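Deadline looming. Please check this record:
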Amino acid sequence: MPQTRWISRSTLVVAGIFAAVALTACGNDSSPAPTGSSSSTTGSATTTSAGKTTSAPTTTLEISDASATQLCDMIRPELSNWRVQGPTLGRIGLNALVHEWALRNGGINGHVLADKPMIDRITTKSCADVHQQAIEALELPDLASGIAF
């Protein structure tokens, strides 16, 4: 029975990721970004067009302390699973978890993709121990490296 619940949850996460990507790609995401934060992230997206590299700055995104805590609370119980599953499956789990968190927090998946290190900044500030354990369990240099899409 626990495996069925995991499969159902992962199916919902994947569906949510595709929905968020579709909304972001179409520009129809009218959800407000989380506010009331002491954590601010900025970034830029680099694109290559006809051999030229350009940088498109993104807007400053305020992540509330509650949202940061929520991310930590989502990662914490997964640490033991990632240790047992190994880094390959664990990285898939991290990717799904981060996108689920972003979807829950105003559909900020596009911001996360444009500034993947924001996940490291948020978790280092809010739960440094969880951040370090996740990096070790997933055998990554940083959490940003585990975010694929």
Q: What stands out?
A: The chain has seven helices and four strands. The CA atoms of residues 48 and 54 lie 6 Å apart. Residues 3-8, 18-58 have pLDDT under 50 and may be disordered.
